[in-house]
Specification:
Length: 319
């Protein structure tokens, strides 16, 4: 038999081993329970309601961070398809009249408001805004080289429903040129305008209002109708918009063709007053075509020969 002290030590050792084994088993059981509980709370990837959604993409606040239109071609706009050439001639077969039209003799208060020297990227749209505000049509006589430089401005004038004629290609005094040079100038200006509008070019206004037999023969031979004016407020010379408006009112009568110019601050300032006062006086604003009863683009002229109120060479000279 073992002594009592050794027996007690052996007993303690056995108890210590038993306790260690018990705690080890208890820890394993606890770990298993906790692991099972953790697995139960994980989302089931087969359930779409429990899938974690990716964060939404933020759009840059600064438009400069986006791709510019120049970097990426714009998709075609079905409401505004590219302009296709129409089956229209460059000129009418013949002019509406062989006379130089300065105005029309009428009993009805109708006038044609006309503008020379455009299109101008800094001014034309401002003129158009005034006309739109008063719902007034006008006829613009454009210079060919300006059309070539600013085709989008010419397109806007057409899109807003106004009438367009040509005012030569380079604004030279055509009466100083040869017959061949005059013809080339008129062809260049008309072709440049036609390339933008795809409409027959019916009207020509000579620079400075200067005409002679050679110019008339060439223009009429191309089918151009020559339009000048009988109301000239000298807006290119007078800087006071009130004086310009007063001159228009003083000279205007039923059937008048009013001459004004683009690119003039004083003209733009006078324009609303001119329109307002003439409307107040019972006048109606129409295009050149409506004033004379013509239909631009028609191959057969509506009228020919001498018209009441038409005159020959224009004594007034514009700049």
């Amino acid at each position: 038999m073992l002594p009592a002290t050794k027996k007690n030590a052996s007993t303690i050792t056995m108890l210590s081993l038993s306790l260690a084994l018990f705690f080890l088993c208890s820890w394993s059981v606890a770990t298993g329970i906790v692991g099972a509980a953790f697995i139960d709370v994980q989302p089931n990837n087969s359930d779409p309601d429990l899938l974690q959604k990716p964060p939404s993409l933020s759009v840059p606040a600064n438009n400069s961070d986006r791709e510019s239109p120049a970097d990426k071609p714009s998709p075609p706009n079905p409401t505004n398809p590219p302009m296709e050439p129409k089956d229209q001639p460059l000129f009418p077969l013949e002019p509406y009249t062989m006379e130089i039209l300065r105005g029309q003799t009428e009993t009805v208060k109708r006038v044609a408001l006309t503008f020379d020297d455009g299109p101008d990227p800094n001014w034309t749209t401002l003129y158009l805004d005034v006309l739109e505000e008063y719902e007034v049509p006008a006829t613009f006589f454009f210079i060919g080289v300006n059309i070539a430089r600013y085709p989008h401005v010419a397109e806007e004038v057409q899109a807003r429903g106004h009438e367009i004629g040509v005012h030569s290609h380079t604004h030279r005094e055509l009466t100083r040129l040869s017959k061949e040079q005059i013809k080339q100038d008129l062809m260049n200006s008309a072709q440049t305008l036609y390339n933008i509008t795809q409409e027959t070019v019916a009207y020509f206004r000579p620079p400075y209002g200067a005409t002679n037999d050679t110019l008339k023969d060439v223009a009429h031979g191309l089918g151009q109708t020559i339009i000048t004016w009988n109301v000239d407020p000298k807006d290119w010379q007078i800087n006071d918009p009130d004086l310009i408006a007063n001159e228009v009112l003083r000279q205007t009568q039923p059937g008048s063709v009013i001459l004004m110019h683009e690119g003039k601050a004083q003209t733009l300032q006078a324009l609303p007053n001119i329109i307002h006062l003439l409307l107040q006086d019972g006048y109606e604003f129409v295009t050149v075509s409506d004033l004379f009863g013509y239909q631009p683009g028609d191959l057969i002229p509506v009228s020919s020969g001498h018209l009441p109120g038409t005159e020959g060479n224009n004594p007034d000279m514009e700049p």
